[in-house]
Description:
This protein is an all-alpha fold. The chain has one domain: Helix Hairpins, CATH 1.10.287.3510. About 75% of the residues lie in helices and about 0% in strands. The chain is built from three helices and no strands. The protein has helices at about 5-25, 30-55, 60-90. Helix 1 (about 5-25) packs antiparallel against helix 2 (about 30-55) and helix 2 runs antiparallel to helix 3. It is elongated and about 55 Å long.
Amino acid sequence: MIPMHYYLILSAALFFVGVYGFIARKNLLAVLISVELVLNAVEINFCVFNRYLYPQQMEGMFFSLFGIAIAAAETAVAIAIIMNIYRNLQNIDVRHIDSLKH
Length: 102
């Protein structure tokens, strides 16, 4: 069996790459992908802690499936919003979003 800390290192790496991408990127699609990386890190933690702390129960797996469903719905809505922004501005740069106020 793979030790727990390997999974936690992977999860921490995914989380920090997602946070860095969220802060550093200017493209809305790249920001959305970064948010998805953070959510995937959380779902890995749910599964790992469930597997190692309560191996006979499935709560962590159910939370992960629920998180995947929420992330899919969030992604669909976010892509629809990004498409509408692109139709109006012909650009999906975060710095130009404030021009929608006019």
